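Hi there,

I know you've been waiting on this one. I reran it after we fixed the sequence typo, so this is the corrected version. Both the input and the resulting structure follow.
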Amino acid sequence: MTMIIRDIPLSKLAPSAHNVRRTGRENGIEALAVSIAAHGLLQSLSVREVLDGEGASTGKYEVIGGGRRLAALKLLAKRKQMSKSAPVPCLIMDGEGEELSLAENVVRENLHPADQFEAFSRLADEHGFGAEEIAARFGVTAQVVRQRLRLGAVSPKLMKVYRDGGLTLDQLMAFAIAEDRTRQEDVFDRLSWNREPAFIRRALTEGNLSVRDRRAVFVGAAAYEDAGGTILRDLFTEDGGGWFDDPALLDRLVLEKLELVAEKIRGEGWKWVEVSIDYPYAHGMSRSYPQPVEVPPEEQARLDAVSAEWDRLAQQYDGIDDLPDDVAARLDALNSEIERLSARRQAYEPDVIGRGGAFVVLNHDGTPRVEHGFIRPEDEPQPEEGMDPVAEDEDATVNEVGGAPDDDEEGEDDVKSLSDGLVRDLTAHRTLGLRLALGENPDVALLAVTHALAAQTFYNGYDEGTCLDIRPRSAPLGGDADGIEDTAAARKLAERHEAWAAQTPTDLIGLWGFIVGLDTDSRLALFAHCAALTVFAVRIPWNRKPKTWATADVLAQALDLDMTAHWSPTARSYFERVTKARILDAVREAVSEEAADRISGMKKPGMAEAAEQLLVGTGWLPALLRTVDAGRSESTGMVEGETFAEAAE
């Protein structure tokens, strides 16, 4: 076989019909063109001379080996980065074209990925090339280069295992999350049967905090790194996740940043302001809330005008999802001003500020939250020495809106002139009369129960302020489910409570009149809120109450409770805490048998994460969270033929 090397003008070269590469001819042409522009043509083209019908030379050549290189060269010529007549080194061959093309492609051995990763690392370490520069020279993105550099920096011990086939590329990428080679090798040495990439990542990030943790969101990556912290970044996921490797440093930065918020709150005159990452629910303090105050007429007029403009714009663009930018910006500005002006319509009493304090904590979404109005036991008003704590205020008067009369001196004199035994006897008969009469008047009964609940829900003191022996108890749930008090549902409940607390009078004596003055809907809403706070349906193993739990199920049915609005199954919230069999049952039930089969061979951590992704949007819930009603299956909570996604809608 005759072979001659010669430079041939690009314009004289054409692709050959005998080139055996049919699939992926156009793939990577752009990157190849960039590489040729940066490094030149590193491999000559294999060509055959094109002859005419009589066997005479036409001066043209067909490329039987290097069709992609030819396409890249022509792309450069089209962009005027090289001349159409530029000389191209070619190996002129004779023989059957398809055989020559096949020989060139079959006997070639591709570069092992490990060699490529390490070569990229040497370009960066030995030649000082940055990711952007390497990307520009090889026609790939900077992110791809960063990934290859990270893989090239993996421990040589692990790279050898990868070359020998002991690790897959996915497993090597998992090890590349950490840049500490000693740490990589330590985790590798501790691996046993479970070599799932998810397990490797968890082992390498054990004790670290996700970038999605509320503390990380609040502080921010830049401030954390400026303080000397490092972040283990996952370059191989679309969301670019990562982990903060110094939780203690992050906690310190959170507290320092919360202190800046606390300084502003201290400027309001509060006796004390404490900073805490988590809200201290077991603080044992009473709480006061802001009360309505008069605002200057000009502020009220401004609030009315701003609210009217907001209503007009909202009505004008009602139903339009994609608002014009100027309209959206105006609505946001109006909303901010409405919130600012509305906040000025309520204020804490100076006495509360002087005796009370506030907590500055970190919210569930990574924003600061301020909880005002807490009174420590030692700062509660104390009765004067020698004063009867049960005696009522001598200046109290009859409530003008139908409230109970305050104690008057004449009535007290009557009581003092009677023996204790006779007082008990008479008031027992009066209690019996009240019971009989109240049971015959549902409207007043609702009023009295609402008053009793509200008196003990919103006020503290030795006198519960009600003659009904109803004692609402609102047990905190923080000890039963980690992080539950920082969920969106808990915040919504707290906001509803604060809204009612702000409306109730500061003095318990005025509560009856306040409730009487409410319209029927508002009175029922207050009653429902107070009653709701007493619900406790937590199942505790050592305190079995099957009838209580059954009642909770009935209550859920009556309320048509939909827990998909408040909870969703994730690896952390559910799948990591149940057996593999239960995970597969959930996937089988919510998605399909095929989906369960696909993940059945995974290890537990990988299976939990896969199940979380598969169940997104399906509306699947564990049996304990399902609300069963008539016509629905007791085991699934669905009508026959209905999918979980349809049930969720």
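Quick highlight: The chain is about 45% helix and 10% strand.

Best,
R. S.
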